[in-house]
Amino acid sequence: MINQKFNVERILPVVTATQIDKNMKLETIKAQTIIARSDYYRRLEEKESLLDILKELRRDLEKKSFSEWILDEKYERAVEETRGEVLVRNYKLELLPYHQLSAGRTRNGKEVLHSDKYKYLKSVKCDSDKEADDYLSSFYISQVDLPKNLIIKKRDSAGYVTEIRADDIVLEGETFSRELGLASSNFSIKRSKNNICFLCKGKGHGLGFSQYGGDQLAKNKKTAEEILTTYFADMQIVNVREIK
User: Fold this and answer.
1) For position 48, what pLDDT does the model report?
2) Residue 166's Cα: distance from chain center in Å?
3) Which phi and psi angles does 218 have, rounded to 5°?
4) pLDDT at residue number 35
5) pLDDT of residue 157
6) Does 1 score more than 60 pLDDT?
7) How far apart are CA 123 and CA 99, in angstroms?
8) At 180, which helix (H) or strand (E)?
């Protein structure tokens, strides 16, 4: 049985508030709450210390302004209405990635993480994500601040850059986009006289749960369980007490 001495339900509203916008529908926030609770217990099961988990939460909170500290009641309701619920595969806790907005399709976990262990992270079509106001974003960077030659070498099946050549060095696409502060690694490159434009699709790494897509499902009266089943089809919601 997983160690349950620390009452995670007490801090879970705050944890979830650092992960998802309060303007999302309640069912979307409930789905994210189940992911957050599952992640907490998975990390404990993998022998990560409670102190390290709480330190990470503190760092996340420090990134928020004072005005963002005021919790919306939806976070409290989401915790109460999903109390003890976790998402598992064959009663085993797994990594549950999430991101703000996909590029129209979530990514294949086995393909991205190079292991059969993550084959449960299947690519899911998310047409509604393409309708988001911030689906497309442009980032302009001076050519003098970048390598002279930038060539996209490889993309995955969802269109995200996995390899980019910078002069004579081949870089991993996700690392490259994160270091430049791009919205996602699903980008194209356009050059002007003095700048390089990175045109990005989506926001975040594209694996697992698309919060925007989930919110569109919630607006169409889907429950948190139905939302999670959409993105994690091989997984089920159980009470954490059922995990041996």
Assistant:
1) 87
2) 27
3) -60, -35
4) 98
5) 96
6) no
7) 14
8) helix 173-180
- CB-CB neighbours of 7 under 10 Å: 8
DSSP tag of 220: T
- Torsion, Cα of 21, 23, 28, 29 (10° steps): 60
| DSSP 8-state secondary structure symbol assigned to residue 242 | G
Helix (H) or strand (E) holding 166: strand 161-166
Number of other residues whose CB lies within 10 A of the CB of residue 40: 23
Question: In sequence order, what are the residues at sequence separation of 6 or more whose Cβ sits closer than 8 angstroms to the Cβ of residue 140?
Answer: 195, 196, 197, 198
Mean pLDDT of the chain: 93
Edge-first strand listing for the sheet containing 161-166: 150-155, 161-166, 169-172
Least confident of 123-127, 191-195, 237-241: 191-195
Query: What type of residue is 140?
Result: Y
Tokens of 176: 């490259």
Q: Phi and psi at residue 216, in whole multiples of 5°?
A: -65, -35
Q: What DSSP state is assigned to residue 49?
A: -
pLDDT digits (tens, 9 = 90+) for 129-166: 999 999 999 999 998 999 889 999 999 999 999 999 99
pTM above threshold 0.85 = yes
Q: Is 128 left (phi over 0), alpha (psi -120 to 50) or beta?
A: alpha
The secondary structure of the chain in percent helix, strand, coil, rounded to multiples of 5, reads 40, 25, 35
pLDDT for 26 beyond 50:
yes
Q: Which two tokens stand for residue 4?
A: 């349950």
Phi, psi values for residue 151, rounded to 5°: -135, 125
Within 13 Å, how many C-alpha atoms sit on residue 61's CB side?
A: 15
Q: What is the dihedral of CA 13, 14, 19, 21, to 10 degrees?
A: 70
